[in-house]
Amino acid sequence: MKRKITIVGLGFGDETALPIGTLAVLNHGDMIWLRTENHPVVKWLRQKEMNFHTFDHVYESLSDFDLVYQEIVTRLLELAEMHENIVYAVPGHPMVAERTVKLLKELAPKREIELDIRGGGSFLDIAFARLGIDPIEGFMMLDGNDLKTEMINPRLHILISQVYDRLVASDVKLALMEIYPDDYEIKVVTDLGIADTEMIRSVPLYQLDRLHIFNDLTSIYISPVREEKVLYRRFDYLENVIAFLRSPEGCPWDRKQTHETLLPYLIEEAYEFIEAVHNDDVEAMADELGDVLLQVMLHSQIAKEDGIFDIYEVIKCLTEKMIRRHPHVFGQASAETAEDVKYNWEEIKKQEQGQEIGKTSILDEITKGLPVLLHAYEQHKKAAKVGFDWEKKEDVLMKVAEELDELRLAKTKFEQEEEIGDLLFIMTSVARMYEVNPEIALFKATQKFARRFRYLEEKARHIGKDMEKIGMNQLDAWWDESKRIEKEQNKE
């Protein structure tokens, strides 16, 4: 016996929108199943004394839509194995936003059941007409129950379907507000094509979930943005801005930059972000991270112009690395603690670097462009990993004292330079033993010195004297005073 399910669509509205082909299939079907009776054409079908069954009882027994759709598909496949030809009718068009049909396409072939998918009037037809959408301008349709911000392209006509209730509408609103202004005008459309109940209502986005007009046939329409400022949050818009700045019509300064000329700015912007973090200035953090991103974008654009790589290759490399170095998240490895994660990371990194040519020492793994203080810190870390290290903190502190003694005994400028270098170098190992980043520690020290020194300058201005004319005893007293003030502020 040939097993087959014929799938038809009931159209987007009442009987006036019921496709003739669908009606013909229904008139000749022996066993007809409707996904739901909740459709405007069903009342008319009953008046025509058409015999059919519905799966509404499944909706009543299960609360989760995915489970409902899976159960409907399971029962349809079981019915098809017992009867020669099943007709399954769904709202709208079988291939437009119909989860059960998608599941049937996956599962029916595995059970050797043929699917014959016919047409049906999609609600897109009436939506294009009523809302004035020309899809050739760019159109996307999204599911309100599974809407993610990254899916949305504000340059296109967007129709969000299956906004059944205010809860779904609230989720949709939050996703849209990540892209559009709060007062952006949207349209809520309900019962399109049904003469007595059709409704199209324009509202500002922030009011979306305050309405009480949602049902199974409610969708939301968002027109393409016309104001470019709305696109400022989009990555591709930033990419185009950077490309234009580098173009002949763009900026002469940006156009003349190279990888080499930009290097100082990358370091500078990174430190300015560090300063914003230390100052707990969230607005400055966002601004400075933007400046860091600018450097990444400029370097990527230069490389693109040279035919080497572009920003998407950079993103691809980073994504691959994150997945590769997190096998406990994306693979089968396990890591219970942060220390386990760090160990796995370093082991994978070793394997990757072991494949690179020309590295004969573990010290070759250290990035060449690091500031000297951080380079020294990394040298100690690498040496410690292979066992070349002090056993305890007290040992390295004794080494500091030893280097200080040698500095005191140094006579020539050459000897003094060498001993100061040794002292600074050993201090990076002290930082490592205490699990402190020396670059950040020194940065904080410079910030602290700047605050206290500015306090001295302010006190000198207050009494109308130049600092160089004020005795050291007074300056020391002010310095101690600034320390006390800072301690009191920190307590608060």
What is the fold-level CATH name, i.e. the topology of the largest domain?
Cobalt-precorrin-4 Transmethylase, domain 1
Mean pLDDT level: 90
- Beta-strand content: 5-15%
What count of helical segments does DSSP give?
19
Radius of gyration: 35 Å
- Strand tally: 10
Could you say which structural class the secondary elements and strand pairing correspond to?
Answer: alpha/beta
CATH architecture of the largest domain: 3-Layer(aba) Sandwich
Fraction of residues in helix: 40-55%
The low-pLDDT segments are none
Helix/strand order, N-terminal first: EHEHEHHEHEHEEHEEEHHHHHHHHHHHH
CATH class of the largest domain: Alpha Beta
Keywords: Hydrolase
Organism: Thermoflavimicrobium daqui
InterPro entries: 4pyrrol_Mease, 4pyrrol_Methylase_sf, 4pyrrole_Mease_sub1, MazG-like_dom, NTP-PPase_MazG-like_C, NTP-PPase_MazG-like_N, NTP_PyrPHydrolase_MazG, Tetrapyrrole_Mease/MazG_pred
Domain NTP pyrophosphohydrolase MazG-like: 257-330
